[in-house]
Specification:
Low-confidence stretches: 1-8, 10-26
Oligomer: single chain
Shape: globular
Structural class: mainly beta
Strand content: 35-45%
Radius of gyration: 13 Å
CATH class: Mainly Beta
Strand order of the largest sheet: 2-1-8-3-5
Number of strands: 8
CATH topology: Immunoglobulin-like
Largest sheet: 5 strands, mixed
Mean pLDDT: 83
Helix content: under 10%
Number of helices: 0
Length: 112
Amino acid sequence: MTTRRAVFGLGSLAAATALGLAGAAQAQSTDPSFRLNNRSNQTIMEIYANSSSTSDWGRDHLGANVLPPGQSFIVRLPNGQCMNDIRIVLEGGRNIDRMQINTCELTDINYP
């Protein structure tokens, strides 16, 4: 049984240039879905996650919803689509982008 436990941070200025990884490396799964945890004091207005092999962000996974502070949202992606680009859009319109994240190797993405 494969367990994905790596946690990446999507922080503001300090993490704009780096992602932090916590936990031991695990065998890779083919399930790229992940839980986005909003640990900030800002509402997340939109979440995009699409294959790194395409140039467009795809659809907003939140749709008509938002992700308030302290809440989580499961982003469902097609099985086997492991390398993904992720964009979150904060209240006020600021974008946080992370490119080429292997979401098959993690279960949670935390902002910040």
